[in-house]
Design goal:
There is one protein chain. The protein is an alpha+beta fold. The chain contains 24 helices and 52 strands.
Length: about 1000
C-alpha cells in the first residue's frame, strides 16, 4: 500500500471523530472532514474509476471541482446520486459509494477490451461514431442503437421517489462575492466595511482557498491560513454579511442574477439560492493544468497542487515516492511539501532550460535533484503508476538522447495555471490571451456582464483575473471590492494591502505536448480529456479532417464535453488544435462556457416543485360542484375542465349529445373561468393593443367588445379572444385557457424590450374572476329575473357589455357567443362564483338548463365554423388561411406579423385554407389529423390537406369536420380522399365551414 494517512496534520479533518462508510460494498474508515477521495486515498485505494470510452484505469487527478476521473454513485436506492465527484463529497457515517462505468468490478472490467482493440486499430478515434454506424443500415435498429443506449451515461439513474428535501431561497445583495479564498475574503471585507450588504459563497467547507495548502505565504505577518481564518471570522461577525460555505456559484445570468448551489450541514439536502446582486465580484481562483505526455492518465499521475492539498488538508500521502514534472516554479512547492511529509522525492523534471528562481534553489538545497531541460516521455504502469521515463528535450521539441527510468508511485505534474473564467463568461464576459503567463484572462474592456441599465456590474479579482502572486491578487481584490461598493454609493476606498511574504516565481515555459518515442510519439496516449478519453492525436485528426473551429472540434472529438466541462482539458486541447492548424492560440479561441459551473442535481433544480407541486392543478371556483356532478375531466393547460357531465349509465358520446341539444333547444351553462383575462390600462393602452392585435382596438368604444387575433413575428396566428372596452376605458383582453400566461409574457416582452416608452400596465386577472357562459334560446328568459339590468337586444346588443348585480352579486355581463346561440358570459368575483353558478342553475331548472363541458362546446363551435386555437392552428397558419381576413386591418400602419404576412409565399394560391368537410357516409366521422391526398392509389400520394377538427353533430345528425385544404374555397363541392389504416379510404365533400345558421340569426335575438 503506497497511498497512506500521515501520522499528524490535516487542516480539515477531526481525528477524534472516526467515520466508517462503504465503498463498493466494503467498509472503509476515515475521519470527519475527509472527502470521499481523501478517505479512499488514505485507505490505500488509488484506482477509483474507469474512463468512458476505453475503460482505462483511472485514479485521482485533482482535489476539487475539476476532478474528471473519480466519479461515484453516492447513496442507495432512491437516494442514489450518480456522477458525484469524490473530491467534493464529504464522508458521513453509513454512507455508501460505488464506482462507475465498469463490469463486473472496478478491478476487473470487461470494457477494458476497448483499450486493447484501440491499441491495434483506431476504431475509437475522433468522430468514429460518425463513420461507424452508417452501414449496413439495417444494423442501426437492431445492433447499433441498442448497444449505444446500453453504453450511454456513466452512473446508474436512481429508482423510486427521492425522499430528500430540496429548497430554493431568494436573496438580494449589494455585492455578491463568489469564492472565499484570499481574493474573495479581501474583496468581501472591502465592500462590507463600506456598508454594503454582502453575500460570500465558498465551495469548500472552509474559507481560505490555496492559502490553506501553501505554507510559504504570510499576510500581515501571519501564516496565510491564519490570516484567512481571521478574515472569515471577521466577516461572519458582521451583520451585513452572509458567509456561505459548501456553496458553489453555479451560474451567472443577466442583470446580476446568480444561482448558488449550497449543501447545508442541516436542513435540506441541497439549497439553491437565487440571488439578485447589484454588483458581483468573481474570485474563483485558477485551475492548474495537466501536462500531455504518454500514459498521463495512469492512477498516481496527479496535479502538483492537488498533491499538496491532500498532504495539507487531509494528511493523506498519495504515495511514497514522488517525481515532479513541471514547466513552472509553483510546482516546486510540491517537492518541498512531499519532503516535509517524510516522502521520497526522486526528482523535479523541469522542461525549462534553466530553473534559477527562489523555490528551485530551496529544492536543490534540500537535496532534491532538479533536472532541467528534460521531460517525462512516458509513464509506466497498469492499474497504478510504477515509473516514468525521462529524457532530454531537444530544441525542435523532440526527445533527445536515451530514456532514463525513474521508479515512483506518484507523478505530480503542473503545466501552469488558468484563471477560472467560466462564471465571467456565462453572461457575456470576454477573454484575452496573456502570452507571458500562457492563459486566457478576463478582458472587461472587450465585454463584461452588465446590469439592467447597461452598466458593467461584474468584476473579477485575484487569480481568476490573472494575478497569480499573492501580493498582486490581494491588491486587485481589495480594489475590486472597494469599487463594487463605491459604485453603489457607499463610502469606500481601496484599503492598503497588508504586507505579503511569498517566494518569487520565474516565468513558465508553455508545454502543450510532451514528445515521446515509438508508438507513443504521435499522441495516441497523450490524454487531454481524461473522462472522455480524448487524446492529442484525436484533436490533430479533427484538424486534418477539416474541423478547424474549436467548437466543431469539440463536438467531433467530445473534448470538454464530459461532466467536468473541460476544466482540465480546454486550454491544452485548443493549444493542440492551434498547433495542428499552425495558428496562434488566441486566433483559435475558446469554446463557449455555459452554466452551470459544476453539475446541478435535478433535485436541486426542482426544489419542492415535484409531485403535486410539479405542476399545480388549477381549479375554478366551481370545481367541487363539477366533481360532485359527474364531471369527466380533461386537462386544458394547467387546468382541469369538465369534458362532459356523465349521468348514471351514460357513455361519453351520449352525454355530449345531450348537452349539445340542451344548448340548441333550451339553455346550457359552461364554466368559462379558465379563459385568460388580462387587464390592459394606461394612456397608451389602445395604441399598444393596436400593435399586438391584427385589427384595430383603440377605436373600440367603452361598453363594447371586439373579437381579436394575435400573431407572432412570422405572421402566424397564436391566440385569439374577445377584447372588451370597459366603461372606465380600460381594456380587458380574453385569451384561450392555455394562452393566458403566454400572452401575458408576450405583452410584457414587447413592452419591456421594444416599446418601453409606452405608458401601459398589464395585470393578469384570470383567477380573480369566475366566468359563466349561459347559452341557448332560453338564456335571456333564465337570467332576466336574477338582475335589474335590461338584457333585451335593444339595451344589450350582441358584443355589448353591462355592469350591475345578478342574484345580489356584482357582475360584468358580456353579450358574446362561441356557440352561435343567444349567449351571455357573466364574470363575478372568484369567491362569489359558486354562489352565482348555483343561482343560475336554480333559476334555469324549470327551463331545462344543463351544464355542458368542453366537448359540447367544441361541437357547437364547429357547427358554426368557429376556429379553435391549437386545432385549426399549429404555428404555421395565418388568419387569412382561416377565412379571417375581415379581422386583419388594412388601415393600420403596423402590427406584429403584418410585414411577415406580406411575404409572397404566404399568399401563394397553393397554401392550405379552411373548409368544411362532410363525409359521403354521414354516420362515419373523419379521424382528427387525417391527411387528404390527390390520388390515394399513387405510390407516393400528394398531400393536399388535413383534418383539423372532426365531430358527430347532434344538431345536423351527421359527421362534420373542419380542415385545411390547398385552394380549399375554390374547390367547393369537390370530393377528396383520406387514406386511413388497413387500406381504407374515406371520402368527403368540401363544403362551407359554417354548417349551421350562417346568417347568425340565432345569436342576434
Amino acid at each position: 500500500m503506497t497511498a497512506h494517512r500521515l501520522p499528524s496534520g490535516g487542516l480539515l479533518i477531526d481525528r477524534a471523530r472516526p467515520v466508517e462508510f462503504r465503498f463498493n460494498g466494503k467498509p472503509v474508515k476515515g475521519f470527519a472532514g475527509d472527502t470521499l477521495a481523501a478517505a479512499l486515498l488514505a485507505s490505500g485505494r488509488t484506482l477509483m474509476g474507469r474512463s468512458f470510452k476505453y475503460h482505462r484505469p483511472r485514479g485521482l487527478v485533482a482535489a476539487g471541482v475539476e476532478e474528471p476521473n473519480a466519479l461515484m454513485c453516492v447513496g442507495e436506492g432512491p437516494r442514489a446520486t450518480p456522477n458525484q465527484r469524490a473530491t467534493m463529497v464529504e464522508i458521513a457515517p453509513g454512507m455508501s459509494a460505488r464506482s462507475q462505468n465498469h463490469w463486473p468490478s472496478l478491478e476487473w472490467d470487461v470494457g477494458a477490451v476497448n483499450a486493447a482493440i484501440a491499441s491495434v486499430a483506431p476504431v475509437f478515434s475522433a468522430g468514429f461514431y460518425y463513420k461507424t454506424f452508417l452501414f449496413p443500415r439495417v444494423a442501426w435498429k437492431h445492433l447499433y442503437e441498442p448497444v449505444i443506449r446500453q453504453s450511454a451515461g456513466l452512473g446508474p439513474a436512481p429508482e423510486g421517489v427521492d425522499p430528500d428535501e430540496y429548497e430554493h431561497l431568494h436573496a438580494f445583495a449589494d455585492v455578491l462575492v463568489i469564492g472565499a479564498g484570499m481574493a474573495g475574503l479581501a474583496a468581501a471585507r472591502a465592500a462590507a466595511e463600506a456598508g454594503a450588504r454582502v453575500i460570500v459563497a465558498e465551495q469548500g467547507p472552509r474559507a481560505g482557498g490555496r492559502l490553506l495548502s501553501e505554507v510559504d505565504v504570510e499576510i500581515g505577518g501571519a501564516p496565510g491560513a491564519d490570516w484567512a481564518a481571521g478574515e472569515a471570522a471577521a466577516l461572519a461577525a458582521m451583520p451585513n454579511v452572509t458567509l456561505l460555505t459548501r456553496c458553489q456559484g453555479a451560474g451567472l445570468y443577466d442583470h446580476g442574477y446568480a444561482l448558488l448551489d449550497e449543501e447545508p450541514r442541516d436542513g435540506p439536502s441541497r439549497r439553491l439560492w437565487r440571488v439578485r446582486a447589484k454588483r458581483i465580484v468573481i474570485a474563483t481562483g485558477a485551475i492548474e493544468r495537466p501536462l500531455a505526455f504518454a500514459n498521463n492518465d495512469l492512477p498516481g499521475v496527479m496535479l502538483a497542487g492537488a498533491v499538496r492539498d491532500y498532504l495539507a488538508l487531509w494528511a493523506v500521502a498519495p504515495g511514497r515516492e514522488i517525481v515532479v514534472f513541471a514547466n513552472n516554479d509553483d510546482a516546486y512547492r510540491t517537492a518541498l511539501a512531499g519532503r516535509r511529509a517524510g516522502l521520497t522525492v526522486k526528482a523535479v523534471i523541469d522542461c525549462r532550460a534553466e530553473a534559477s528562481g527562489a523555490l528551485p534553489e530551496v529544492v536543490r538545497a534540500a537535496g532534491i535533484p532538479v533536472r532541467t531541460g528534460m521531460i517525462v516521455a512516458k509513464a509506466k504502469g497498469g492499474k497504478a503508476l510504477k515509473s516514468v521515463l525521462v529524457a532530454k528535450r531537444a530544441a525542435d521539441g523532440r526527445v533527445a538522447g536515451a530514456l532514463e527510468e525513474i521508479g515512483c508511485d506518484v507523478l505530480a505534474m503542473s503545466g501552469g495555471w488558468s484563471p477560472a473564467v467560466h462564471l465571467f463568461s456565462h453572461c457575456g464576459g470576454k477573454l484575452a490571451w496573456d502570452e507571458a503567463q500562457a492563459m486566457f484572462r478576463p478582458a472587461p474592456e472587450r465585454g463584461a456582464p452588465t446590469g439592467a441599465e447597461g452598466e458593467v456590474n461584474t468584476f473579477v479579482a485575484g487569480a481568476a483575473n490573472g494575478f497569480l502572486s499573492t501580493a498582486d491578487g490581494l491588491a486587485d481584490a481589495l480594489a475590486a471590492g472597494a469599487r463594487a461598493a463605491a459604485e453603489l454609493g457607499f463610502a469606500a476606498a481601496a484599503a492598503e494591502a497588508p504586507a505579503v511574504t511569498e517566494p518569487g516565481m520565474a516565468p513558465l515555459q508553455p508545454l502543450w505536448f510532451t514528445p515521446s518515442v515509438g508508438k507513443y510519439a504521435h499522441g495516441t496516449k497523450h490524454f487531454l480529456d481524461f473522462q472522455n478519453d480524448v487524446t492529442a492525436a484525436d484533436v490533430e485528426l479533427a484538424a486534418r479532417e477539416g474541423y478547424e473551429s474549436v467548437e466543431h472540434a469539440k463536438r467531433y472529438t467530445t473534448l470538454g464535453m464530459a461532466t467536468d466541462q473541460g476544466k482540465l482539458s480546454n486550454i491544452n486541447g485548443l493549444a493542440t488544435l492551434a498547433n495542428a492548424l499552425a495558428a496562434p492560440i488566441p486566433e483559435v479561441g475558446t469554446t463557449t462556457f455555459r452554466p452551470p459551473w459544476t453539475p446541478l442535481s435535478l433535485g436541486a433544480i426542482a426544489g419542492r416543485d415535484f409531485g403535486p407541486l410539479f405542476k399545480p392543478l388549477r381549479r375554478t371556483p366551481m370545481h367541487d360542484w363539477h366533481e360532485a356532478n359527474g364531471a369527466d375531466w380533461e386537462p386544458v393547460g394547467e387546468w382541469r375542465r369538465p369534458f362532459t357531465y356523465r349521468r348514471a349509465g351514460e357513455g361519453r358520446e351520449a352525454s355530449v349529445t345531450r348537452e349539445v341539444r340542451a344548448v340548441r333547444e333550451a339553455a346550457g351553462m359552461l364554466d368559462a373561468s379558465t379563459l385568460g383575462k388580462l387587464l390592459v390600462t394606461g394612456p397608451d393602452a389602445g395604441r399598444f393593443l393596436d400593435l399586438l392585435y391584427t385589427n384595430m382596438m383603440s377605436t373600440l368604444k367603452p361598453g363594447a367588445c371586439r373579437y381579436g387575433l394575435m400573431c407572432n413575428e412570422n405572421g402566424f396566428l397564436f391566440d385569439d379572444g374577445v377584447v372588451a372596452r370597459l366603461p372606465n376605458g380600460d381594456f380587458l383582453c380574453h385569451t384561450t385557457t392555455g394562452g393566458a400566461e403566454r400572452v401575458h409574457g408576450w405583452m410584457e416582452e414587447w413592452l419591456q424590450t421594444e416599446w418601453p416608452e409606452l405608458k401601459v400596465y398589464v395585470a393578469n386577472l384570470t383567477e380573480q374572476f369566475a366566468q359563466i357562459a349561459v347559452a341557448g334560446p332560453k338564456a335571456r328568459e333564465i337570467l332576466q329575473p336574477l338582475t335589474s339590468m335590461d338584457l333585451s337586444a335593444a339595451a344589450l346588443p350582441f358584443m355589448g357589455i353591462a355592469e350591475g348585480e345578478m342574484a345580489g352579486i356584482p357582475v360584468r355581463l358580456f353579450r358574446i357567443s362561441f356557440s352561435g346561440e343567444l349567449s351571455y358570459e357573466i364574470a363575478a368575483p372568484a369567491h362569489r362564483g359558486r354562489a352565482l353558478w348555483d343561482a343560475i342553475r336554480e333559476a334555469g331548472a324549470g327551463q331545462g338548463i344543463q351544464p355542458y363541458g368542453t366537448e359540447a362546446l367544441h361541437v357547437l363551435r364547429a357547427e358554426k365554423g368557429f376556429i379553435m386555437i391549437g386545432d385549426e392552428t399549429d404555428g404555421t397558419v395565418t388568419p387569412q388561411e382561416l377565412g379571417l381576413s375581415w379581422a386583419v386591418s388594412k388601415k393600420k400602419a403596423d402590427f406584429i406579423g403584418k410585414r411577415a404576412q406580406e411575404r409572397p409565399f404566404l399568399s401563394h394560391p397553393e397554401r392550405e385554407r379552411l373548409v368544411g368537410l362532410e363525409t359521403l357516409e354521414p354516420g362515419k366521422r373523419l379521424p382528427d389529423g387525417a391527411y387528404a391526398v390527390a390520388d390515394p392509389a399513387a405510390k407516393t400520394p400528394e398531400v393536399i390537406g388535413r383534418v383539423t377538427s372532426s365531430y358527430m353533430s347532434p344538431t345536423l345528425g351527421r359527421a362534420i369536420a373542419l380542415g385545411l385544404v390547398k385552394r380549399g374555397p375554390e374547390r367547393m363541392g369537390e370530393v377528396i380522399s383520406f387514406p386511413l389504416e388497413k387500406g381504407e379510404v374515406m371520402k368527403a365533400r368540401i363544403v362551407d365551414p359554417v354548417f349551421y345558421d350562417k346568417e347568425g340569426a340565432r345569436q342576434n335575438v
